[in-house]
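INPUT
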Amino acid sequence: MDELGNLFHGFAVALTLPNLGFMLVGILLGVLIGVLPGLGGANGVAILLPLTFSMSPTSAIIMLSCIYWGALFGGAITSILFNIPGEPWSVATTFDGYPLAQKGRAGEALTAAFTSSFVGAFFAVLMITFLAPLVAKFALKFGPAEFFGVQFLTFASFIGMTKSPGFKTLAAMMLGFALASVGLDSVTGQLRMTFGSTSLLKGFDFLTAVIGLFGLGEILLTMEEGMSFKGGKARINARVVLDTWRQLPRYWATSIRSTLIGCWMGITPGGATPASFMSYGIAKRSSKSGNKFGTGEIEGVVAPETAAHAAGTSALLPMLTLGIPGSPTAAVLLGGLLIWGLQPGPLLFVEQKEFVWGLIASMYLGNVVGLAIVLTTVPWWAAILRIPFSMIAPVIVVVCAVGAFTVHNSMFDVGMMVVFGVVGYVFKKLDYPLAPLVLALVLGDMAESSFRQAMLLSQGSLAIFWSSPLAATLMSIGLLMLFWQHLSRLWARPRTS
Amino acid sequence: MSAGEQEDHRPAVRVVSVEVVVALLFVGLGVLVMADSLRVGAGWADDGPQAGYFPFYVGALMTVAGAANAFLAVRRRWLGSGPFVSRAGLGHVLHVLVPTAIFAALIGFVGLYVAAAIFIGWFMVRHGRFRWYGALAVALGVPLVLFLVFERWFLVPLPKGPLEAMLGY
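OUTPUT
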């Protein structure tokens, strides 16, 4: 039980007064970000990243990951009270959460949502605690071919698993890779795709892209629909909370199933959004009261929230152990690691024990603190949404601009943010997925260098990816994922006909 | 937005047009990436793969994906294509996008703080039916808070213009 010893050491790191303070600030900021339209986990963390440059990496990651937990909690508030999903993964929560609020049972719905989020996250952290060190130990044996295999698997499962049309996912992903390769090539020292422009020398930073795509793009979408908030009132007191908690154990089967779906979707980069939809759909099919789903069933809130939080949390497992983030927000956190001078990947568990276990301990604490905070402060967050959008929108645009500028202290990035905002708006309307674009932009350099190294070893033969059993397995699963939609259709056809 | 006005729900652009334009942009970009990769060398040098080796395939896949998307969009056209955005919706979007672009450009001339104050104030009065003093309070308050947080507490400098220079920053 080496992990337990490490974990207790981690608690000692996380429980210092400054770190607890950062945790609290992070959760509060996170809920705020989750509640406000146009700000979300990914771009919220991206905007605040520059503020942590001077902090110690452990404190910084504790604060930023708490922002992430807070945003996950915050998304539920707006979905239930206002039928406005503050985050994409809370769309499924609106299906039953909003009808509950209209029936005057907002308190119950919110308590159920927060509690199941907590349950999902808690089990995901437990899984990380015991699984992550094993994965890391395993990954230490990886060569370039295996690493490229993992990356191939990551990107292939995007194409196979997301609902967007495959060619659109591919196009968005390749745009990310192309943008990642702009600038100085670190191996040969040659300039790629700069076309003589000095601004392009540094290349595109994914933080700018995240802020534009998710931040400004979201504002534009919200504006198009003409913003109006019509919301229910939130009253939560101790009795409602305790009454709801008494009901919740009835849905244990849904909770376990949703947690498993969430953990799986988080580790393979499906992410929280599809996890929440999938979990809602399966709960609807298998529940006894499934036909009442959509009219205000507590179970319909439990399922997506549990899965979304489990997925959001377990997305950090591949980020910590392999250096491959399972979600856009995890990608931003990964970018943070690089900026603080830490090399993500299996060696992190050997060389940066304090950092890793401090982070894992803070996940336990952060979720407990988060649950307590959101349960007690819901009315205030609901009040924020009564502020007119015409005041919130320009303030968010200004905050996005500040975030984009501080990445490199460059005005060029502010301009790029506006461009990415338009791209994000158009892509969202046309169903081009944004997550693979961002992940390709983050991982592009890494994927390219492991590909090149593998090619160098094999003198240009693709056979290297099938030369070791491990790499071959990874590549084969990758190919299976790539054609998953076609294969599952082939599979389904003989049975239906 | 002004909900009382009669909203124009006629489509400004159709989905299929935007689909095709975006797909063709992908094709164009893909070709550009391939061309530039060939320029730096997409083959094999004495010391291993050249700089364009990996990006060349990225560009190739992008071109293929773009062409496929364009083809699929045109083929699906006869199913009927909905509006991409209504005229009223496009208006709403431009109401944010144009001021945002102006704001971004303005930062270079007057600094972020002054540009933010002008942008927020204008937006609130124009779209929010705020009274001038309410808008003024927010327009001055937000840059002030930003100044304290970034410049003072976290020591992250933001772009400044002539006004800040006059005040000695």
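end of record. Chain B is about 70% helix and 5% strand.
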